[in-house]
Write a structure and sequence with these properties.
The structure is a homodimer of 363-residue chains.
Chain A lengths: L27 H8 L3 H9 L7 H14 L5 H7 L5 E6 L5 H16 L3 E6 L4 H13 L4 E5 L6 H16 L3 E5 L7 E5 L1 H15 L4 E5 L5 H16 L9 E3 L4 H14 L5 E4 L2 H13 L9 E3 L16 E3 L2 H13 L9 E4 L2 E3 L10
Parallel strand pairs in A: 1-2, 1-3, 3-4, 4-5, 5-11, 6-7, 6-8, 8-9
Antiparallel strand pairs in A: 10-12
Helix pairs in contact in A: 1-2, 1-3, 2-3, 5-12, 6-7, 8-9, 10-11
The first copy, chain A, binds a DNA duplex (30 and 30 nucleotides) through helix 2 and helix 4.
DNA sequence: CGGTCTGCGGAAAGCGCTTTCCGCAGCCTA
DNA sequence: TAGGCTGCGGAAAGCGCTTTCCGCAGACCG
């Protein structure tokens, strides 16, 4: 109505009296000046403070905000406010479906609580993981969630725990998913039990010689799942010689080449367990390329039950983990309760989803 | 050596003289106090300022940082420093492989430039997209990258452009991927040409009746790709009646149900083009479930060439877009050059990758 | 031996916001 | 009509950091 800028075009002249040129963002002071109120009042209107403000002033402020397209500077707000708003998550790689699912759960709960989620990809690099902890701490996040396998690396574990503890000291909350060796609340999937169950499934189908395509040795997820398979083997009076466990990198291509090695070195194998679905998919691809029928000649099983498991041919037998729920629970813990309480641990179950890729061994 | 805390345990007593209790983060002032230097000097040491500082003081500061596990408050730094460090990205959904690939490219270049990437998922909700623009603006990011299809929605486009323009006014850089209707530099994939090429491929195999499983009507990506298919049809003297274009939601399940509808309504169809790979995979699944051989009875083609395309059976013929490179180029533009320059547009090519899912129509 | 540099540490002024505290009106009550 | 409330706006003090500017020494020169 009375503004010098009748249309919505960005006002060039007025911003930040210092300088004169409009470069640089519009500040609260600009808004206050234009609305002819104090910054205090402008702030109150904008943030919906409980303190009452007269209708007229309120309207003037809102008008000014609109005209100037004002957006508060989050850094300044973060500094001035006491409470933390964002939450940080460190995963190996969000674009990996495993983490995508977990992240979905984290995201949902975070959003429900009005929190902003900052996602960091460590790409399985411990050094980067350490850096990200520092970064998130610097960002003053309210909580840090660490998802994905831990490492068999004492020095690293000690260091990251020290950092996490320092973070907790300063009032932050830590929760972890699938890492039992850390500070903080934990959501632990039944990796070992899952390994046991899938091997059990294969032994019961009649297989005698199971081969395993494992992930990197340094990851606890690898060793946990492997331990379960070993246990099942023992229960059935079978051995799992080292020769029949090949380590790879949890990638599709790694699964393919490992299949080649495994079958070359141990031709007696009639069933392959890959410790994640990506590698299982790679195994399937290699077997198809080499005209080895699945499950006719060789059975294949994966781990995680990613969406792709039901799209490959044959559809993939695998171990299902409730990934989204795990994320949701980790975030719930991260956002609930005081910082000081005994460490909570929630365990989640694994179940076998039998599909087409597993069957009895060839007669 | 002379610190009161000989071991690495977190020092509880000293932080932030105000209060006495150690709750709350360690500040630069704490570090300075412990090192017996001024905050200015501490800051210089920590940030590796160009200004020389005597070796002894430097060592004392570093020691204090170590002892106190000090991490600078990023908000305070953001406020005090002039230059912006983070870069924002708005995508539909990072866990969608299409965006995962793009994000990988964005990430790489951002990291090369020492920038932190803030990723926001809009889940194809225009309102959320608007919110995120504000949020990123509030975070004072150096650049905003908008990836993923635009919307056929004039009001929305106008509003988001207004916001983006305001952001540019204040010195921010905007670049977009696959959206031609926006403010800012753009990386534009050859969506229309890709559509033309894939249809061309099918017509040349001898197909006469092509059906299309399209994405949501409101997305420009959908209409662009469709336009290319229409053009190819016209070039071959063929029509593409509305009946043979069914709209879905770019999801796997949407692809499956759309296949059912399409073949029910238009049994003459011998080739199906899905406008992304997820829907193509869904189509494949439906066809397999209904014992319709691919490509024997029906050919199927996708779009994007996501990794899964070579894992399904039969492997999927599709249109490849250099997604990672698109991300990298968008980020390069976002981080290069001054804010004031003519809008740059970079176009990237699409090529057909013929695999097993397409072949001649049944005789 | 006085004067001018130069080298380096510290004081202090912000960055943009929130929030406490103060004070001015206008109102009610006695 | 005086005194005390209450309601609401503004002044100002930080939040934790960076960075400019100043000043003190010691080095060097004439």
């Amino acid at each position: 109505m009375d503004g010098p800028e009748p249309d919505a075009g960005p006002p060039a002249g007025e911003a930040s009296a210092r300088g004169g040129i409009a470069r640089g963002a519009v500040t609260l002071a600009d808004v206050a000046r234009r609305a002819k109120v104090s910054p205090a009042t402008a702030s109150r209107v904008i943030n919906g403070s409980t303190k009452p403000v007269a209708e007229e002033l309120r309207a003037r402020v809102l008008r000014a905000v609109e005209d100037l397209r004002y957006v508060p500077n989050a850094h300044a707000q973060g500094l001035a406010r006491s409470h933390r708003i964002a939450v940080g998550v460190i995963v190996h790689d969000v674009s990996d479906p495993y983490f995508a699912e977990i992240t979905r759960g984290l995201q949902r709960v975070a959003t429900e609580h009005g929190r902003l989620l900052v996602i960091c990809n460590s790409y399985r690099d411990p050094a980067r993981e350490l850096e990200y902890v520092e970064l998130l701490r610097a960002q003053q996040v309210a909580a840090i969630v660490l998802a994905g396998s831990g490492y068999h690396d004492v020095a690293f574990t000690k260091e990251i725990n020290a950092k996490l503890r320092a973070y907790q000291q300063s009032g932050g909350h830590v929760s972890v998913i699938g890492r039992h060796e850390h500070v903080g609340d934990a959501v632990l999937p039944a990796n070992e039990e899952g390994g046991r169950l899938i091997a059990e499934h294969l032994y019961e189908l009649g297989h005698k010689h199971i081969g395993v395509i494992a992930g990197p040795k340094v990851l606890t997820t690898t060793t946990d799942r492997l331990a379960g398979i070993r246990r099942a083997a023992k229960d059935h009076g079978r051995a799992l010689p080292a020769r029949r466990v090949v380590h790879s990198d949890f990638s599709r291509d790694g699964g393919a080449t490992s299949t080649a090695h495994l079958l070359h070195d141990s031709p007696e194998v009639t069933a392959i367990v890959a410790l994640n679905d990506s590698m299982a998919v790679g195994a399937l691809a290699w077997l198809r390329a080499h005209k080895i029928s699945v499950p006719g000649q060789v059975s294949v099983a994966g781990f995680d039950d990613m969406p792709v498991a039901s799209d490959v041919t044959p559809t993939l037998t695998t171990v299902r983990l409730p990934l989204t729920e795990m994320g949701a629970r980790a975030m719930s813990m991260a956002l609930s309760g005081s910082a000081i309480h005994p460490t909570r641990i929630e365990r989640v179950e694994a179940i076998v989803v039998a599909r087409e890729s597993s069957g009895p061994p060839p007669a």
